[in-house]
C-alpha cells in the first residue's frame, strides 16, 4: 500500500481523532492546512505535495500509525454475545473539525459511540448531517456574541455518501405534513462502527425542505417536529434499506423517539395487532432521558401534531389520534401536548437518567405517567455518564500515564487496577505534571485571546491557581456566580501572594438573551482593576478549547442550580490530568466526591424536583456564592499555596492522587457502555 493510500485510510476513520500519534502525523503532513480547517486531516491531505510524502521519515511514521490502526481494527470484541444495537441521537460531538453538536448531549453521544467502537460491539449509530451544525462564536469589541454558520462540506470530511447498487445516492422518503422529503445519508466510520448522518439538503428536495437537517435546535416547532420525523422515521427506514436488523434500539433523548412509531408500523403491516406491536416494540427499545429542565423536553401542540403527522399517519395502520395518545400523560385527553419523552417512556422496556440524582428527578418528573406506582417505583433507573478517555486525555498526559500506570490503556483503563499505581507516585513528580499541564494551557489561552476581536490581553501567571469554567451559557449554570460580591472576588484575584485566575468559555444559544448578557458581564468584569488579564473569556468553546481547558486547569468550577445538572461530563475529563473539581453536588459529582478528592459547593442536591420561583433562586444563589467564597478562601487557595521545602503543596497533591486513582475508571465511557450492555441492551431485562 502506498503512503498516500495509508494516510487516506487513517483519515477516513475517526479512530485518528482519539489517537495522538495519528493526529500529530496529519499535523506533520501539512501544519498550516491542518490547522486552518480546524484540525482536519482531509485538508492536510488535499494540500500536501508529492515531495513531502516522499520524505522517508514521514513515510516511516505513516507505516507505524497504519499498523496501529490495523491492529485496532483486527482486535477481537471485548464483550461476547452483546446484542446488536442501533443508537439514535440528534447530535454527535466527534471532533472540532466536524461541528455536529451543541453541547453535552452530543459530546456524550460521540463518546458513547467511540467506546462502543473500542469494545468491538455490534453497534450502529444514526444522527444528522448538520451542515451548519452549531454556530461558530466570536465576540465583538463590547463582548456581544456573534454567531456564524460556516457551512460544513461533507465532501471535505471523512464521510462517504451512502449509495445503492447502481451507485446512486440511497434515499428513503419520509412524509411531513402533506409533503414528502427524500432523506439520504453520509457514513462516518469509528473503528468498525458506522455512524449514518441523515441529510435532506440535496437536489431531490424542494428548497423548503432542504434546510431541515441544516441546523440544530433552531426554527419553530413545525421545523422541529419535521426534523424529528426525519431522524426517527427516516433513520429507521435507512437502516432497513441497508439491511440492518438490530436486536435493540437505543433512543438517546426524546428527539429520535418517532423511531418507535416506525417500528410499530412495520410490525402492524406484517399482521400484528396494535397491542402485539406495542409489546414487541417495548421489548426491543430502550430510552435515555437527560434533561431536568422542563423546557428541554419537546412538546408539540395537538393542532401542529395533527397537521404534521397527517402524511405519516396515512402510511401507518394507526390514525393520528392513536399515535397522539402515546405522547400524552393522559392518552384520552386530546387537549394535551404531545411530548417526545412520554413517547419514549411509553414504548421502551427500560429507561434511565444519566446520574443517580438525574434518575430520581426523572422519576418525579414523569410520576403522573404511572398513577398506580409510588414515585420510587417509577421505572426509570440510572446509568451515570462517563467520558471517552482517549478523546479527552491530553497527549502529554497520555505519556505520563503510560509511565505511571499499570496495564494496557486500550483494554484496562476503565478498571481501578489500571490507575492504582498512581497512588505510589511521589509528590514532586505529580506536582511537576500538574505544573506542566497548566503552563501548556496558559500558553494556549494567551494565544487564543490574542486572536479575538475583544479588547482583552492575557496577563496570566504560570504559578497561579488556575480555574477553568466552560459549558453552555444557559443561565441556570450561573457562570458569573464567582463575581457575586466583586470586592470579595477582587481580593482573591488580586492577592499579591496567592492570586487566582480564571478562564471562561461557552456559547449562549442565539435566542438566549440572558445567557448572552452573562458573557457581556464577564467581559465587563475582565476590564476592571484587579481582574484585568486574569479573567479571560475564550471565544468559540468547542472540543479543542474543551480539551485544553480540562487538561490544564487546576480547579474545574461547576456551579449550576440544583438539580438542573443532568450529569455533567466536563468535570470527569479533568481527573486524569490531576485537575480537581470544585462543584455543586449535583449530576455526577455526588457519586465521585469523597470529601477529600476535590471540593463541594453548598449542600448536596436532594433529588427533590421542586423548581424554585425567583425569590427562592435568589436565596439559593446567595447561599452558593457564600459557600464558593468560603471554600476558596479557607481551603482551596490555602492548600494550593501551602508549600513544603520542595515547593510542593502536599495536601493539594494528596487530593490529586486520590482523584486520579478513583475518578477516571468510574467515570469512563467504557464503564458506561458496559453498564448499558449489561443492564439495558441485553435481554431479558429486569426493570431497573
Ligand atoms: C465535555 C463537553 C461538554 C459537556 O460538559 P458539561 O459538563 O455537561 O458542560 C460540552 N461541550 C464540550 C465542548 C465538551 O467538551
Q: List each distinct ligand once.
A: pyridoxal-5'-phosphate
User: In whole angstroms, how far apart are the ends?
Assistant: 50 Å
Low-confidence stretches: none
Strand count, sense and closure of the main sheet? Answer: 10 strands, mixed
Give a count of the beta strands, DSSP E runs of length 2 or more. Answer: 22
Helix content: 40-55%
CATH arch. level architecture of the largest domain: 3-Layer(aba) Sandwich
What name is given to the CATH topology of the largest domain? Rossmann fold
Catalytic activity: [(1->4)-alpha-D-glucosyl](n) + phosphate = [(1->4)-alpha-D-glucosyl](n-1) + alpha-D-glucose 1-phosphate
GO molecular function: glycogen phosphorylase activity; pyridoxal phosphate binding
Protein name: Alpha-glucan phosphorylase
Organism: Longimonas halophila
Structure summary:
This protein is an alpha/beta fold. The protein contains 28 helices and 22 strands. Belongs to the glycogen phosphorylase family.
Report on the architecture of this protein.
GO terms for molecular function: glycogen phosphorylase activity; pyridoxal phosphate binding. Keywords: Allosteric enzyme, Pyridoxal phosphate. It holds the Pfam family DUF3417. The structure is a single chain. By secondary structure, the chain is α/β, with parallel strands linked by helices. It has three domains: 3-74, no CATH class; 85-137 and 145-349, Glycogen Phosphorylase B (Rossmann fold); 403-667, Glycogen Phosphorylase B (Rossmann fold). The protein contains 28 helices and 22 strands. Strands 1, 4, 7, 8, 9, 10, 11, 12, 15 and 16 form a ten-stranded mixed sheet that branches. Helix 9 crosses helix 10 (259-269) and helix 10 crosses helix 11. It starts with a helix and ends in a 7-residue tail after the last helix. The model has no long low-confidence stretch (mean pLDDT 96). It binds pyridoxal-5'-phosphate. Pyridoxal-5'-phosphate binds at residues 103-104, 107, 471, 541-543, 546, 568-570, 573.
Amino acid at each position: 500500500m502506498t503512503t498516500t493510500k495509508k494516510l487516506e485510510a487513517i483519515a477516513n476513520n475517526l479512530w485518528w481523532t482519539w489517537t495522538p500519534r495519528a493526529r500529530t502525523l496529519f499535523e506533520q503532513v501539512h501544519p498550516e492546512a491542518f490547522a486552518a480547517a480546524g484540525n482536519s486531516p482531509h485538508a492536510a491531505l488535499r494540500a500536501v505535495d508529492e515531495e513531502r510524502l516522499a520524505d522517508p521519515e514521514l513515510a516511516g511514521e505513516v507505516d507505524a500509525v497504519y499498523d496501529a490502526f490495523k491492529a485496532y481494527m483486527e482486535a477481537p470484541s471485548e464483550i461476547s454475545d452483546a446484542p446488536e444495537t442501533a443508537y439514535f441521537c440528534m447530535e454527535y460531538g466527534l471532533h472540532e473539525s466536524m461541528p455536529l453538536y451543541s453541547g453535552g448531549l452530543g459530546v456524550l453521544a460521540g463518546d458513547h459511540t467511540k467506546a462502543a467502537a473500542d469494545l468491538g460491539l455490534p453497534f450502529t449509530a444514526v444522527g444528522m448531517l448538520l451542515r451548519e451544525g452549531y454556530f461558530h462564536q466570536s465576540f465583538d469589541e463590547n463582548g456581544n456574541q456573534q454567531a456564524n454558520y460556516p457551512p460544513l462540506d461533507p465532501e471535505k470530511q471523512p464521510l462517504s455518501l451512502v449509495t445503492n447498487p447502481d451507485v446512486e445516492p440511497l434515499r428513503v422518503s419520509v412524509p411531513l405534513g402533506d409533503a414528502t422529503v427524500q432523506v439520504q445519508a453520509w457514513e462516518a466510520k469509528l473503528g468498525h462502527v458506522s455512524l449514518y448522518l441523515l441529510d435532506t439538503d440535496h437536489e431531490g428536495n424542494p428548497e423548503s425542505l432542504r434546510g431541515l437537517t441544516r441546523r440544530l435546535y433552531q426554527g419553530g416547532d413545525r421545523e422541529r417536529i419535521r426534523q424529528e420525523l426525519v431522524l426517527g422515521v427516516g433513520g429507521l427506514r435507512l437502516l432497513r434499506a441497508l439491511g440492518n436488523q438490530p436486536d435493540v434500539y437505543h433512543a438517546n433523548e426524546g428527539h429520535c423517539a418517532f423511531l418507535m412509531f416506525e417500528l410499530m408500523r412495520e410490525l402492524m403491516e406484517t399482521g400484528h395487532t396494535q397491542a402485539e406491536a406495542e409489546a414487541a416494540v417495548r421489548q426491543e427499545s430502550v430510552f435515555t432521558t437527560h434533561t431536568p429542565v422542563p423546557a428541554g423536553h419537546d412538546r408539540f401542540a395537538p393542532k401542529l401534531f395533527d397537521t404534521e403527522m397527517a402524511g405519516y399517519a396515512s402510511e401507518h395502520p394507526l390514525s393520528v389520534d392513536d399515535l397522539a395518545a402515546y405522547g400524552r400523560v393522559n392518552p384520552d385527553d386530546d387537549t394535551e401536548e404531545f411530548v417526545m419523552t412520554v413517547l419514549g417512556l411509553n414504548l421502551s422496556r427500560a429507561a434511565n437518567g444519566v446520574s443517580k440524582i438525574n434518575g430520581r428527578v426523572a422519576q418525579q418528573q414523569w410520576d403522573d405517567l404511572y398513577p398506580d406506582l409510588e414515585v420510587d417505583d417509577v421505572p426509570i433507573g440510572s446509568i451515570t455518564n462517563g467520558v471517552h478517555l482517549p478523546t479527552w486525555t491530553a497527549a502529554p498526559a497520555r505519556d505520563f500515564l503510560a509511565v505511571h500506570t499499570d496495564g494496557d490503556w486500550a483494554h484496562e483503563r476503565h478498571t481501578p487496577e489500571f490507575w492504582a499505581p498512581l497512588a505510589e507516585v511521589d509528590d514532586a513528580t505529580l506536582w511537576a505534571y500538574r505544573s506542566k499541564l497548566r503552563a501548556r494551557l496558559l500558553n494556549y489561552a494567551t494565544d487564543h485571546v490574542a486572536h479575538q476581536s475583544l479588547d482583552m490581553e492575557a496577563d496570566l501567571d504560570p504559578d497561579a491557581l488556575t480555574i477553568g469554567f466552560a459549558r453552555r451559557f444557559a443561565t441556570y449554570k450561573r457562570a458569573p456566580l464567582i463575581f457575586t460580591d466583586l470586592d470579595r472576588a477582587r481580593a482573591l484575584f488580586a492577592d499579591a501572594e496567592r492570586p487566582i485566575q480564571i478562564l471562561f468559555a461557552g456559547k449562549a444559544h442565539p435566542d438566549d438573551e440572558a445567557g448572552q448578557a452573562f458573557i457581556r458581564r464577564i467581559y465587563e468584569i475582565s476590564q476592571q482593576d484587579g481582574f484585568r488579564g486574569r479573567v479571560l473569556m475564550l471565544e468559540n468553546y468547542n472540543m479543542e478549547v474543551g480539551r485544553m481547558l480540562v487538561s490544564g486547569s487546576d480547579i474545574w468550577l461547576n456551579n449550576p442550580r440544583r438539580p438542573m445538572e443532568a450529569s455533567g461530563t466536563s468535570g470527569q475529563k479533568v481527573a486524569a490530568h490531576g485537575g480537581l473539581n470544585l462543584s455543586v453536588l449535583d449530576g455526577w459529582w455526588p457519586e465521585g466526591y469523597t470529601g477529600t478528592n476535590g471540593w463541594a459547593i453548598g449542600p448536596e442536591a436532594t433529588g427533590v424536583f421542586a423548581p424554585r420561583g425567583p425569590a427562592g433562586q435568589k436565596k439559593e444563589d446567595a447561599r452558593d456564592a457564600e459557600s464558593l467564597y468560603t471554600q476558596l478562601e479557607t481551603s482551596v487557595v490555602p492548600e494550593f499555596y501551602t508549600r513544603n521545602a520542595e515547593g510542593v503543596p502536599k495536601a493539594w497533591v494528596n487530593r490529586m492522587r486520590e482523584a486520579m486513582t478513583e475518578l477516571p475508571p468510574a467515570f469512563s465511557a467504557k464503564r458506561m457502555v458496559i453498564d448499558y450492555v449489561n443492564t439495558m441492551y441485553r435481554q431479558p431485562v429486569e426493570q431497573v
